UniProtKB/TrEMBL annotation:
It is a multi-pass membrane protein. The keyword Transmembrane applies. This is Gll1938 protein. It comes from Gloeobacter violaceus (strain ATCC 29082 / PCC 7421). It comes from the Bacteria.
Length: 319
């Protein structure tokens, strides 16, 4: 009889998973996380610097502005309405093709594949600002250095390498959705599509190859950099600074300043108080573009079972 061969790292990780069911700490996954961090979080920042530097030669015009705005809207709504409010919290139901479209447009943001994102975010809600929260700014000490380290960790650095929530525990509902699994498996292709579309449109509208580079930079890299930082600000600043409407157990905050730019995500304390609410603003005067889109989809008959708390529930929780 021969000795059993050394198990590959992925199998070792799976063995550890069976002992510790909620997260997977595996070198193979960490390697993927570091690559993802470099390509989709660091390179867009470098691309943004390049786009600004190139402005001396090729200043961005209406084409670049439209590509930046258009792709930012598509991917931003994809993340907040699709990834977050639909797939993570099931705050409404939608037609299958609407679900697929939201999953694809969210994937194009480059913030992770839909099932991984959902698992990470559900773990954030489960352990908010406690050990195990993937991106809390409040676990690095209360002195100024600790606060700064916490903000940097929550904003960006946690993505370099982190415990991977077991999707069987955290997103088993999504694993039963075959079309969503297909969208999930093609994640890298959707990110590339989100870069190819502005590059090709820029080339076509400008009529020369420089247009391809400008479209790629402004509609791709700059758009990813801007949207990424807005999303990460929710994790960092909105678990640190700002008013609270509800005395929730974690340190979530609200921000009116970021409401439009974050598609309503900045009503983060409201969201922690009512995670399954499709509306994060909870009232008409708190701007919430994500909820406006869900409202529109419902009016068109493309979304239903839209969950929002009653005035009584809100009043009771505020008390
Ligand atoms: Zn939070
Ligand atoms: Zn959430």
């Amino acid at each position: 009889m021969s000795e059993p061969a050394e198990q590959p790292e992925s199998v070792k990780g799976w063995t550890r998973l069976t002992r510790r069911r909620d997260v997977l700490d595996d070198p193979y996954i960490h390697r993927y996380q570091r690559r993802h961090f470099f390509f989709f979080d660091i390179l867009p920042a470098i691309g943004t610097v390049a786009a600004v530097a190139l402005s001396w030669v090729w200043p961005p015009g209406p084409i670049e502005g439209s590509l930046l705005l258009g792709l930012w809207l598509v991917t931003g709504f994809g993340v907040t309405v699709g990834y977050h409010r639909l797939f993570t919290h099931r705050s409404f139901s939608a037609a299958p093709w609407v679900q697929a479209l939201l999953a694809v447009s969210g994937s194009m943001a480059g913030q992770g594949s839909v099932i991984s994102w959902v698992a990470l975010h559900r773990r954030h809600h489960e352990l908010s600002d406690q050990p195990g929260d993937p991106h809390s700014p409040n676990l690095h000490g209360q002195d100024p250095v600790g606060r700064l380290r916490g903000l940097l960790h929550a904003h960006l650095l946690w993505m370099r390498q982190h415990e991977y929530p077991n999707v069987v525990c955290y997103a088993s509902d999504l694993l039963r959705d075959r079309s969503l699994l297909q969208v999930n498996g093609l994640y890298l292709w959707w990110v590339l599509l989100g870069l190819a579309i502005p590059a090709l449109v820029g080339w076509w509208l400008h009529g020369h190859v420089a247009g391809l580079l400008l479209g790629f930079l402004w509609g791709g890299a700059v758009r990813m950099f801007v949207l990424g930082n807005i999303i990460w600000s929710i994790n960092s600043f909105l678990h640190s600074f700002g008013p609270r409407l509800f005395a929730t157990r974690e340190h979530s905050r609200n921000s009116g300043w970021l409401a439009l730019a974050s598609f309503g995500e900045s009503w983060h304390n409201n969201h922690h108080a009512f995670p399954t609410s499709a509306s994060f603003g909870l009232d008409w005067y708190r701007l919430d573009p994500g909820y406006w889109l869900i409202w529109l989809l419902a009016r068109l008959g493309l979304a239903w079972d839209v969950k929002v708390p009653s005035e009584e529930q809100i009043r009771l929780k505020r008390a």
